[in-house]
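Entry:
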Amino acid sequence: MNVIIIEDEKPAARRLSRMLSELGLEAKKTLHSVEESLQWFQNNPHPDLIFLDIQLSDGLSFEIFELLEIKSSIIFTTAFDEYALQAFKLNSVDYLLKPIDEEELEKAVAQYKSQNAVSSSRMAVDFEDIKKLLVNPIDREYKKRFTVRVGQHLKIIHADDVECFYSENKGTYAATTEGRAYLLDSTLEQLESELTPKIFFRVSRKYVININHIRDIISYTNSRLQIKLNKTSDQEIIVSRERVRDFKLWLE
């Protein structure tokens, strides 16, 4: 199977390529922008399957299909779950929410293989309809502040001032540069799609950290890493073993 990846975040592209390799698939090419993709498709045979990020550094990936007829099956990847659930379900298009889950990826690949075995025809995708339903996600900004209740008062917390988010006793907290932790209404899963991935990274099931507040990174047992933050010293933040590789790529 000839597979390519179109993804502008290089750590995410490398992670997806590695995950595909573990499923016995090799991504023949990784493209990072609309312009690069257009040039490549004009000079190369079209692949069987494309893993396509919606939002690229120079525009929406739909622009590729507005200018060229692509003869490939597509699995979309997106962090915009509130849009994707509506847009893709209505159009019966396969998609994966970022960060991509290994089991979900395996299911998507298996579904593609199953459908391809039955029919070699490509499903017609109405990119314009999907584009309209996405409500211009290219203009969407990541969350910059949170409102929390402190007694009878409401307090505004800026995302830049949050050293880490963590879960504890079924609650989600924001640990700030002032050395305090505030209870939030969101879950870590919801926060992952709301926070800018260039600044925030989920190092484990329990913690999402801010790269700008890392004081030290220390080797830990079982090939893991321990994170020391500037002010948040009461939490033992460990990068889980399965996330160490992606964490190192994210740091780059």
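The longest strand covers residues 162-168.
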